[in-house]
Each structure stands twice: as structure tokens, then as C-alpha cells.
Amino acid sequence: MQVDQYNLIVLTQSCDLANNKARLVALSPIYAKSDFEQVNTQLQQKGQWERVRQGRVEGLHLLASPQTPEDNQLALVVNFREVYSLPIDYLTKHAKECGDRWRFRSPYLEHFSQAFARFFMRVGLPSSIPAFK
């Protein structure tokens, strides 16, 4: 059996985790911008990363590098199109073994949560109001 390892970010609401309301925890992978770009070559085109930064590419969210936030080439990419779930007991044990981890502070936590919510709350209509001409 193959086991893959990822750097993941927790998507499940912290209040649900703290109050034992989640048996499974939703997570998305975090990639180095350079690694993600090698697999997703369309992002190498001029201006594409700026579109991601502005929130115009659905499913992707940029995070500043925790060590060097002023260098956008070291940014991290969260791909909301990849969502995994793991049992909370497993993650709790794993988190204790890993020790210290990076965490968001306000208002970055709310900004990230809002980006995730925007991706999942999209609604496609079968028809729409015609464009004004």
C-alpha cells in the first residue's frame, strides 16, 4: 500500500474541532508556488499569479511565506479543489508528535476562511438575466 505525505492546512472550523463536533477533519494540501507551477504550467503565463493573488482563480489561494512574507516567489498555494478528510483522533495524535506548527492569526484566519467559503458557495444557474447592451 502506498502512503503519501502532504503539507496540509485544516479547513474544518476550529469551534467544531474544539467542541468535538467533527469526527473527520477537512484538509487541503499546501504547495510551494514553484512546485505547483511546474505541474500547472498555465500559471507560468505572465499575470497568472497576480490573478491568483487577487482571488480571481477559483480554487486557488495564495499564502505568504511564513519565513519571508515580502518575497512573493516563496508564496504557498492552497488548492481548495483537493480536499481530504482524516479522523480527528489520528490528526490530534499526529499534531502532538509534530510539535509546533504554523497557525493563522486574525485577520488572516478570517481571510483564508472567506476564500474557502467563496469557492464552495458558488452557484451555477441554468440561465441568467441577459447582458445589458
How would you characterize this protein structure?
With 133 residues, this protein is α+β, with helices and mostly antiparallel strands. The protein has one domain. Helices cover 32% and strands 18% of the residues. The protein contains 5 helices and 5 strands, in the order βαβααβββαα. It has helices at residues 14-18, 33-39, 48-53, 88-98, 108-120; strands at 8-10, 24-32, 60-63, 76-79, 84-87. Strands 1, 2, 3, 4 and 5 form a 5-stranded antiparallel β-sheet that branches. The N and C termini lie far apart (59 Å).
Which features does this protein show?
about 130 residues; alpha+beta; globular; five-stranded antiparallel beta sheet; 5 strands
Short description:
This protein is α+β, with helices and mostly antiparallel strands and 133 residues long. It is 32% helix and 18% strand. The chain has one domain.
Number of helices: 5
Low-confidence spans: none
Question: Strand fraction band?
Answer: 15-25%
What's the structural domain tally? 1
Largest sheet properties? 5 strands, antiparallel
Structural class given helices, strands, pairing?
Answer: alpha+beta
H/E topology pattern: EHEHHEEEHH
Note the gap between the termini.
59 Å
Mean pLDDT: 92
Based on CA inertia axes, which overall geometry fits? globular
Report the strand count. Answer: 5
Q: Estimate percent helicity.
A: 25-40%
Rg, nearest Å? 17 Å
